[in-house]
């Protein structure tokens, strides 16, 4: 399954004014399953640091019969969440699903990837970027430039090894 966020932002303030999640299944396996996801909202408006700052984590259980759009009422979100610059739909990797990033979150992640404190989130984002190359949603040149830009700051040796292995695959196959 694939979770796709549909986020509408105010054209002036860029605040989130509508937040929906769509669950999509592969054509050859059209089965929805119950999923537990945690939506993380990040911002970097902290004067003390340039690092992305976790605002909140919103847990959601997606029932199999609720496979259409899942809407979150923006008025239920506090002001900090509506100002989030980055959202991730599977924060602690509990869902068995592919995650799509909205445009704003993708742009943010591309710029800030190595600055996220959460190692699991960095690992998930690298996996997302690799999936995007495989799905022809990101060019191999862009993926390789991300490696050049961010991998020098990575501290997890297993993640470095995984990214290098995937880089070889990207060079050879894409």
What does this structure look like?
The protein is globular. Helix 3 (119-134) runs parallel beside helix 5 and helix 4 (140-150) packs antiparallel against helix 5 (157-173). A hairpin with a 6-residue loop joins strand 1 and strand 2 (16-24). The mean pLDDT is 87. The protein is an alpha+beta fold and 174 residues long. Strands 5-2-1-7 form a four-stranded mixed β-sheet, with no helix packed on it. The protein contains five helices and seven strands, in the order E-E-E-E-E-H-E-E-H-H-H-H. The relative contact order is 0.15. It starts with a strand and ends with a helix.
Helix-strand blueprint:
Blueprint: E1 2-9, E2 16-24, E3 35-43, E4 53-62, E5 69-72, H1 79-82, E6 86-88, E7 98-99, H2 103-112, H3 119-134, H4 140-150, H5 157-173
Parallel strand pairs: 1-7
Antiparallel strand pairs: 1-2, 2-5, 3-4, 3-6
Helix pairs in contact: 3-5, 4-5
> Which residue ranges are poorly predicted, with pLDDT under 50 across at least 5 consecutive positions?
none
- Helix fraction, binned, reads 25-40%
Please tally the β strands and state the result. 7
Shape: globular
**Major sheet: size, sense and barrel closure?**
4 strands, mixed
**Structural class, judged by helices and strands?**
alpha+beta
The helix/strand series, from N terminus to C terminus, equals EEEEEHEEHHHH
Proportion of strand residues: 25-35%
- Given the structure, what is the number of helices? 5
Side-by-side strand order of the widest sheet: 5-2-1-7
- Average of pLDDT: 87
Q: Which radius of gyration do the C-alpha atoms yield?
A: 16 Å
Distance between the termini: 24 Å
